[in-house]
Amino acid sequence: MSHPIIGLPLLTSNPIGWAVLGVAGYLTYQAGKKAGKNSVEQVDKECLADRAVKGAMKSVYKAKLKTDAMLNSSKEKYGEMWKEAQAEASQQA
Q: What is the C-alpha separation between 18 and 70, in angstroms, rounded?
């Protein structure tokens, strides 16, 4: 197996070698660009645990709102029935 430095003159001495080096450099550039972009996106994102807790809090809050609305409607419905029952009982007594 030959040392990589021995193959360097073959790459730099002809046009195909220049094309190979150019493509390799471009691919390296693109990989670095993508890695840098991903690292910036990772800094901007919230932690997975924080997002999970926030989602759970939203779900609980929505359930609370629905429960409160349901209890209020039940309170109004049965409150009227209670008042009617009291009025009928007081008329009979």
A: 74
